Amino acid sequence: MKRTKDGVRFHYGWVIVGLALVNLMFHYGIWYSYSVLMLRLAEEFGWDRAAVSSIFSVYMLVIGATGPLVGRWIDKFGSRTVLALGSLVLSLGLYCCSIADSMADFYLSFGLIAGVGAGTIGLTGNSPAIENWFTERRGLAAGIATSGIGLGMLIFVPIVQYCLLHQSWQSTFLLLSLISVGCLFPVNLILQRTKIPGRGQYSGNTDAASSFRSNSTECDPVSGKRNANMSKFFLKVLGIFFAGGFIVQCVLMHQIAIATDAGFEKMRAAKILGAIGLFGTAGRAAWGAISDRYGCRNAYATSSVLLALGSLFLLIVQLKPGYLLLYLYVACFGLGYGAIAPLNMLIAMDLFSGARFGMIYGILFMATALGAALGPMISGQIYDYFSSYTIILIGVIFLIGAMNLILRSTYR
User: Fold this and answer.
1) 124-147 b/e with 16+ CB inside 10 Å = b?
2) To bridge 174 with a disulfide, which of 46, 98, 121, 306 should be the other Cys (CB 3.0-4.6 Å)?
3) What is the pLDDT of residues 335-363, one digit of tens each?
4) What confidence tier does 49 reach under pLDDT thresholds 50, 70, 90?
């Protein structure tokens, strides 16, 4: 805690939150911009959509697989070193994309190299930095930081689209590479701080942490010295992270198809459904503040109700199409979806703060990435078999309920 010239106390942790917001904005900006880049690459090389999509699938799998490694590196070397190097690796991967001329080149440059860099500056890389600086107001800090997810979608996708309309795809990748090395690298190298001097392990007394620790020993869930209670407990938290990724991507990846199958005009439906990003961005900071005031369990329960209502409205849209139902879906699902990233981060901070938090969060995020990868694929297979999204949406509603029940059993 420092004092400014006028005597106001300033906590440097808010600078770390700002850095996390910028890192996540760029990370998810590239993530969501690939849908635009994919079309240009398909036109340029004559590849089919499945082939171009497979590049992004490799990218996603690499991000998930590197999670535990990134967490371990941060635990060992600190956030400053790892995040700065990660931005350089990401810049290298994007530069290699600008000179790629084959599918194998893109698998290597975007899928592998850029995937490792993006995984480093994503949630796995920034969550330990925030955890290290905050013992109070963690919810607000996590909410502000994860607002970068929605901002990345809102800012980078139009920029990339504009660049592709006026420049080549090679120039677009080169621009993204220069932003990474010219912006992310210096701000993380100069402003990032690894640890508060004299700071010990988090000593907060949340209901969840105190309840769990009173019924099991204080052992790390990845140290190999777990008792039965810890093993079961950690699997529950893994299930929550997996379900979050599965539910969100299952619905978001198919929402346009659901709306058009129901008879909505494609462009108008796309504009309406795009507002989910706005609701999610606005909701993240709010959910963090709500969690600080009313507790993570209550905030998660409320967001689960909104997610379930949104899924229900989308289900009804199939049976009785109407724009009012579509608007209600956008509002409810968008606000509920905005809670998942900050509240999942808070769950991990509350329950697993300590010397190995980075590696633990990396494992948890790997479960999220796996759920996000499997959700769209499984729902697509179910649709191909039944020619309907009804079973999928009913399953999503039940999974939301199960996720909330698991959380409530974890937070006694």
Assistant:
1) bbbbbbbbbbbbebbbbbbbbbbb
2) 98
3) 998 888 888 888 888 888 777 788 888 88
4) low
